[in-house]
Amino acid sequence: MSDRRDGAPEAAIDAENAVDSAADAESADPASPDGGHAAATPSTHTVRLELVDEPGQLLAALHPIADNGGNLLSIYHERGNKTPRGRIPVEVDFEATPERFEEIVDALRSEGVNVMQAGTERYAEEVTLLLFGHLIDTDLSDTLSRIEACESASVADVSLAAPQGTEEVSSARLRLEARAGETDAALAAVRELADEKELRVVEPLTGVDA
Fold this sequence. Notes:
Elements: E1 2-3, H1 10-27, E2 43-51, H2 57-67, E3 71-77, E4 88-96, H3 98-110, E5 114-118, E6 125-133, H4 140-148, E7 153-161, E8 170-178, H5 183-197, E9 200-205
Parallel strand pairs: 1-3
Antiparallel strand pairs: 2-4, 2-5, 3-4, 6-8, 6-9, 7-8
């Protein structure tokens, strides 16, 4: 397995190599008729994850891949770049059969790992909206986390404006990336959350350079 990070800690690389070895062992199926390999041909897949910047989070995210037969190829850990929620984007390449790939993605999400992109699954639609209200008092971090929990969309960018101070009404411009055909579902989730927190939603914005 190759790690594309420059200057990565040796301990982190050793941990990832250990998971890689486990994945190799898991990927063999001794009961299969071809002597230990699944009938379907493995192919390369990529998942883009969002992790909390805490020790052990990367290794914990790799376990569902290894435990479900994925053969790790490379990891791109973007420590210098954070998502709008202040988390670390991590791109993982691995080999797996199509069936096992679906199992791996399900396992990652079951473990609470935010899968921003899986394989050829891409956010093909984009919408920009405004939120108005007491965004800070109602916990903006929680608002963004709950929007991200909606599998239809991902928060690509956030711009907060609080000209009268954080205790007064503020606004936030959100750029959402939604899966093809699921923009309405994403907006519905935002509206429901806004109603709960007594926020106002202005959407969608067109002709805006987000």
